[in-house]
Structure formats: structure tokens, C-alpha cells
Amino acid sequence: MKNFGRSSSSLKSAETMRLIFSVACGVMFGLFIGISFSTSSLTKLNITASIVSNFPIARDRNNIVSSQNHTDSSIKIQNATDQLKIWVPSNPKGAERLPPGLVASESDYYLRRLWGNPSEDLPSKPKCLVTFTVGVKQKHNIDAAVKKFSDDFTILLFHYDGKTTEWDEFEWSKRAIHVSALKQTKWWYAKRFLHPDIVAPYDYIFIWDEDLGVEHFDANEYIKLVKKHGLEISQPGLDPRKGTTWPMTIRRGNGEVHTITEEKPGKCSDPHLPPCAAFVEIMAPVFSRDAWRCVWHMIQNDLIHGWGLDFAVHKCVEPAHEKIGVVDAQWILHQSVPSLGNEGQAKDGKAAWRGVRERCEKEWSMFQSRVENAEKDYYISKGIDTSNFTFKSNGIDPSNFISH
User: Parallel, antiparallel, or unpaired: how do β-strands 324-334 and 257-258 relate?
Assistant: First the structure.
């Protein structure tokens, strides 16, 4: 019996040792797995994911989730992009994609330096613009005229003869703006170089011929009277001794300004319309900024002499018979030098000036027809019966007058 007891105890000890050994081996294996997992887990997971994704259901689910995430991301990016796009309908045409604070819709004729701080370029900004359409033969007359304008005026010369360096003898010419195009009229220049957004800084714009005598004219005093009487379109009175055509524009010696006159019987269908009122000639007109914005749009690209324009500018001012007038206290002399007329071309035995004159008369008739047709079309578009309308405001024959 003693032998049997001793044998049973030995068996239990052996089993215990095997258990301890197994546990120890398990612990060591676990530590090994734990250490290895940190470096191989990503690879194992990828392998596992690859294996799982081979199953059709899992693959379809992954594609749906991936596609949905991509779509959501694209929508978010597109929405963010749309929000960052700039579109401002109130900006000038063509500039809708710019932020309003960047839009520079107006310009000027102020001369700038090539150096220094831009904010220090202009010690002063002239508030009026005076333009002359000139040829070198009249340079001394223009010199006298320019000297009647102070530093508060920007001087702009349009050279129809192409000669500009000949004006360098005058000190003021170095500060003037010179634009040259052969054999063009002041209205051709005005349509192309006096856009309202270019001349916007100027309170008044003078668009003058070259053959004006200015002995009795002072530009600063003229502006004072224009402002005092609220004139939007004006001209100096004309010395009655020479170069006058219309009673309205002849200087009167008993006042500062007049806005109405008496014409020959039958000349005026309405005492408040040209040539009895609301009328200045095209030789020396002066426009306010607002009036010029309208008149510029009225000027036709191809009708370069401007004949008939003086009978239509009243459409740009209301009430025209009060805001269009002649300044008597500051007057000029129209010398009637046909310098631009002589720039024409002799043809079919006709003198050069004759062809120019015939073109002027033709343009007047064409312009009058365009005005009448445009107004008629407008009223018809509004459903207004025009059968009883009289569109011609006067029956004047342009061939009876010389307008410049």
C-alpha cells in the first residue's frame, strides 16, 4: 500500500509541472504575439480587409460607401467654390466678376508722374475741361484763347492737321493733352475721346472751335455766371459785328444771361424750343457733366460735323428753356475762319470747301430724320398712336445757314 501511495503522489507532481510549463509557454507566446502585433497589425488588417472585400456583398457595400463619400466631398467643394465666385450685376457691363471695391469705372486727363507716390502726383485737380480742335495755322489765336483759362482748366487739343510738335513753343502746351488724327472734326474727336466716364471729374466741358476771339472773355467769371443762373448747356454771347447766324446767340448788353429770343415769323413752332429758346450753337458750347453724359449718347458716329445737334440738345435738359442759355456778360467774336473746311477734297470740279459744306447739309437732314424716326419707334413700342404727332420741331432748311 505504501508503494501505491508514493506512485500517486509522483503522478500529481508531474501533471503540475506540465501545467506550469504550459502556462509559461502560453505567457511567452502571448508576449511574442503582443510584440509582433504592433509592427504587423497594419499589414494583417490590410490582408484581412482584402480577403473580406473579395466577398460580393462586402465589395458592393464598400463601393457604395466610397462613392457616397466622394459625392458628398465634391458637393461640399463645389458649394465652397460657388460661394467664392464674384458676380455683381450692378457693376458696369463686363465688370460683373470684379469686387465693387476694385472697379474703377471713371478716368480723367490728369497727367501723372513716372516716379514717386501716386497719391502725391496731383497738388490740385482741375474742375473744368476745355477742348479746341486746331490746326497749326491758328496756333497764335489758340495761344490767346488758352491764356483766358486758369489752372483750374485741363487743356485738350485735337489736331486735325497732324502737327503737334509745332506747339512746343508755348509753355502751356507742355501741360496740355494732344490728340492727333488727320482731317477729323471736333465731334468725331468728342465721340471718341470725351466719353462721359473719361470726363467725369470735370464739372464743365468746353468743346470749342479754333476761330474764336476771346478779348472780352474770362473763363472763371463765365463759370461763376453759369452756376449762378443754373445753366446746364450754354455758350458766350457772340459779338454782333461778325459771324452771327441766330438771334438767340447774339450778345445783349443789358444783362448777364438770356435764355429766350424772338425770331422771324414762322421760325419757331414753340417759343420754348429752338431756335427761340433752349438753343446754343455748336461753335462754342459748354456742357455740365450731367448734360454732356446725355449729349454724348446723342452724337452719331458717322455724322461728324454735328450739324443739327444744336437743335436737339434740349432733349437732354429739363426744363430746357430755363437751363440752356447765352452768357451775355462774357462774350466772344466768331472770326469765321474756314480752316477745317479747306481740309476737304476737290471733286467733280467743285472746290474743297464746297464738298465739306454739302456734307454738312446732308448730315443735318440725316440727323433730323434719325431723331424723328427714333422717337416715332419709341412711341409705337409703347402702344402710343403717333398719327396725330408732329415730330419736326421746325421747318428750317439747313442750306440757308452756316453753323460753323
Answer: antiparallel
